[in-house]
Amino acid sequence: MAVASPPLSPPSAEIRERFQRLAADWKQQSRCLSNTGQMAMLKSYQRSIGMGWPAVPLILEELRRESDQWFWALEAITEENPIPAGDAGYVRKSADAWINWGRERGLIES
């Protein structure tokens, strides 16, 4: 069962700054990793998940800028997975599926 998204309000400067710091830390720590499970277990990634729904629009914005392995976090927070089975494993296609999902729900602008 999907978790309903809360009403959209722009993330506060504090939330945005925290997410950006965690994302930068995660990218630094995961740059030599190829296993997505190991990437997702890094503390900075787990703390991003711990931010909950306020992080979702920020993660989607990040995916628009640069395709990366944010899918585990998005699925953990939203309890959804909009990636078609045939696109699983393709980072750009997976990112596009999540971006479209976010647009449809009004979480990010078109």
What structural class is derived from the secondary structure elements? mainly alpha
Question: How far apart are the first and last residues' alpha carbons, in Å?
Answer: 26 Å
Low-confidence stretches: none
Number of strands: 0
Biggest pleated sheet: none
Radius of gyration using CA atoms only: 13 Å
Strand residues, percent: under 5%
Relative helix content = 55-70%
How many helices in DSSP terms? 6
The chain-level mean pLDDT equals 91
Describe, in plain words, how this protein is organized in 3D:
By secondary structure, the chain is mostly helical. It has one domain (13-104). 57% of the residues lie in helices and 0% in strands. It has helices spanning 13-30, 36-40, 43-50, 56-65, 71-78, 91-104. The longest helix is centred in the N-terminal third of the chain and has 18 residues, at 13-30.
Descriptive keywords:
single chain, 110 residues, mainly alpha, 0% strand, globular
Brief description of this entry?
This protein is mostly helical and 110 residues long. Helices cover 57% and strands 0% of the residues.
Which helices and strands, and how do they pair?
Elements: H1 13-30, H2 36-40, H3 43-50, H4 56-65, H5 71-78, H6 91-104
